[in-house]
Amino acid sequence: MAHDAPQATGPSKLVIRNIGLILSGALEKPILDGDTIVAENGKITAIGRFKDCNIEGATTIVDANGTTVAPGLIDSHVHPVAGDWTPRQNQINWIDSYLHGGVTTMISAGEVHMPGRPRDVVGLKAMAVFAQRAFWTLRPGGVKVHAGAPVIECEMVEEDFKEMAANGVKLLGEVGLGGVKDGPTARKMVGWARKYGIQSTIHTGGPSIPGSGLIDKDVVLEADTDVVGHINGGHTALPDDQIRCICEGCKRGLELVHNGNERSALFTLRTAREMGDLHRVILGTDAPAGSGVQPLGILRMVSMLSSLGELPAEIAFCLATGNTARMRELDCGLIEVGRSADFVIMDKAQHSPGKNILESVQLGDLPGIGMTIIDGIVRTQRSRNTPPAGKVPEVVAK
């Protein structure tokens, strides 16, 4: 099992130099001018030209060798259980494998695969607090797993949400995977969650696991969760007219997942773009699931939406980084001063017909990952999962 990666034991200063392209993660300015990023004690302190940056006292220097630096990818929809193990596929080190796919942050949509998952109120609250505490203490490979997302049941009262929030719970699992499946009850409980600072998401579409059921547009719109979970189905999507109705009927997050209907994902993307609402679109995998574990799931979504959805690659990367960070109120996902120094360093894959990484992604190819960095600490170098990159970064001083 992958254990907690080493943390900085003293003051640290990271310098990434010789960058060929900086992807910001921000829709309003997806490409930044500069060839150097400096981070101190895990936070970005400077972005610009090497000659203008203070690199004195650097504890780690990375030569990007002309490659692309982007914010670490964020998976907005995962189902962790305990450590780096998933009983759904009986697989170990799946989170570490996602790190090799560029994912540095994960958001739990509920620890629903826990064997014997309790459904009583006392048990589900206890499990949520346990998961939140456990995953913030143990970070497999350094990945930040925001967990502790209880699946709500009809017997819950407002005091339960207040208690969970006071104990650090900040997320709800997918509404609809437990006993609450109707709009009025869901809306009441989502309101209680929001009152105490707990963010919510909802299962959308046909049933996925035993105990789940159809959640259609009427329930989604009435529940008014912060995120419309897998609007493209997990796996079974709603009809196009219902998806459009959801897009037009609320202003909440529209989550597209790898373990969903790809045609419906493209339909949602087109609809959001027509509405001028690309900022609402975020990406997840909805894994582990029956389809397995997809370490490259977020990269594959970026490539699919860019190539088949005719979305510029630099914009597609924003859906997997800055959009999610802003919607989920995270301090990562954007390359800007003050944010967490979480990066993925990439280049176009060897022999891709694209002239550069952006063109290769828009042609449908996956980039090759040469390094991941979390909190200013190098976590992986050449990815064991992506195609080999044309150029790779290297640590030149430490």
UniProtKB/TrEMBL annotation:
Transmembrane spans: none
InterPro entries membership: Amidohydro-rel, Metal-dep_hydrolase_composite, Metal_Hydrolase, Metallo-dep_Hydrolases_sf
Domain named Amidohydrolase-related: residues: 263-376
Superkingdom of the source species: Bacteria
A molecular function (GO) term: hydrolase activity, acting on carbon-nitrogen (but not peptide) bonds, in cyclic amides
GO cellular component, one term: cytosol
A Pfam family it matches: Amidohydro_1
Cofactor: Zn(2+)
Protein name: Enamidase
